[in-house]
């Protein structure tokens, strides 16, 4: 056995070191690309208007208070704005004490500018970097004072990574990028029509009040800083694997103050960790730690039908609760979701399906201990004929709703754990999208799409900002607009 | 689960390293590309967009294939044919029709035979069937030039020489 291993290692070493092919060296090129899109949206959403002041997170507190570790109602937390009552009704910021009514009609624009660097060395290795500049830095307005605010369209980085690739050993990507399971190698996720159907741009129009917008799409797994290996394709198979230490992106530590806290990218235990099973979108923060992904894909054609199959797994650990008394407690389960997808393409038709099962909440977050696993089935189909593409997709998920356990701290600073009897119900999340696009010029499309997404959990009030108990919420969005990729 | 994954992680790169003709590099545009939830619609992956720095090899190749120098035939094949036939005096060369016709030429030491060649460069693509060479031979018999056959391999040998030269020119320009 040892001999075989040594022999194999020698062969691999030789393969890696040998100049694989004589190719001319190319100086790197820098390209600019990207996309722009502008849509009209008509939104019919239950829980779109707020009529009752509630304790929902309002982000109305100033930046310093928002990021500090503090006590809210005697509970130390990093999210001081959660459940905090508005101190005063302000005319400049929307607070918990205010109510609002929202129109169905809106326009939405978005763009990204991508920089591609590509080069080739004399021995045939290609290398380069991708830097994607987005202009949707924040979802909501950030108005600290009347004359102190940050624009919604401030530039930020979506993804950026460097890569080096060889026909012999494949490709390594290092940076902020999707993983093999989280977008790179999926099969069966049919989103090539309209804006993507149920996984499309509908989120741009739906408010979060009753949370009828968040889906568990592959891209939702996140582009946290990771190192990714992608193999060459051999006999139709290729595979990929990635590793990330945590959920953080970009440069620097992430610590917002001089004192180390849970906001630091590399924190593995902190006070208030149980609040971050679901990622906080703005600060790109979650309890997910030591994330690994692996996927195996086969692509080929049988009798003129193009086929693609993918099996993958994503797993991770989680940050632990750390009480003010410096006692660490494990409150999360490990993330662990397996994924199987398949799709077939022939005569312009593409059909696909994907199934996912494992330990995750509805947004790829770690489950609290004792909570049930997630099941999700996705099916989709599309048809392309000349400049026209039509399609539809459908997703059905069952997942833990309200957690079965509530965590807090007592006056002495010790972690308390109280069973939540109302949290035993199953949450169902169902959505579908149907749409099409017409290519009017290379890269330029007119898109139209209708989508609907419903969440339901028996007996639980999903929308405390309206009177009564609403245990079923739906958002329907019609989108008509244009999109240019360049 | 972790140990299985670790075993796979070790085994698969080893398998990948013993690939052969059935192995190829997966292009960057064969991977999905997600922006939050929605798939992006980039037209040609990493080769899309406008080159702002460096030499655009794709465009250069397109221009060369299309004869960006004013030729209506493939520039590499045209230049390679001229180079290959340059040992003979040139009678006419038409870059638009793609024909090159040489005058009669007698190799030194073989005064009683002479050769003439016609070459046709066809199309804008650099392809192995993009050039055809026809060699004619005459021998001196009793003071008269008489047509005589050429060996069957001569034409294809000349074509091979042209193609080899074209390949050389192509690789030279690619490494600029």
From TrEMBL, chain A:
Q: Which UniProt keywords apply?
A: Signal
Please identify the protein, giving its name as recorded: Porin
On whether Signal is a keyword of this UniProt record, the answer is yes
Q: Which SUPFAM superfamilies match?
A: Porins
What organism, scientifically named, is this protein from?
Answer: Roseicella aquatilis
Quote one Gene Ontology molecular function term.
porin activity
List each copy of the Porin domain by range.
14-451
Record InterPro entries = Gram_neg_porin_domain, Porin_dom_sf
User: GO terms for CC?
Assistant: membrane
What is the superkingdom listed in this entry's lineage? Bacteria
Membrane-spanning segments: none
Q: Where is the signal peptide?
A: 1-24
TrEMBL record, chain B:
Which Pfam families does this UniProt record tie to the protein?
A: DUF3576
Question: Secretion signal: which residues?
Answer: 1-16
Q: Which UniProt keywords apply?
A: Signal
Q: Which domain of life is it from?
A: Bacteria
Q: Which InterPro entries match?
A: DUF3576
The entry's protein name is DUF3576 domain-containing protein
Q: What organism is recorded for this protein?
A: Roseicella aquatilis
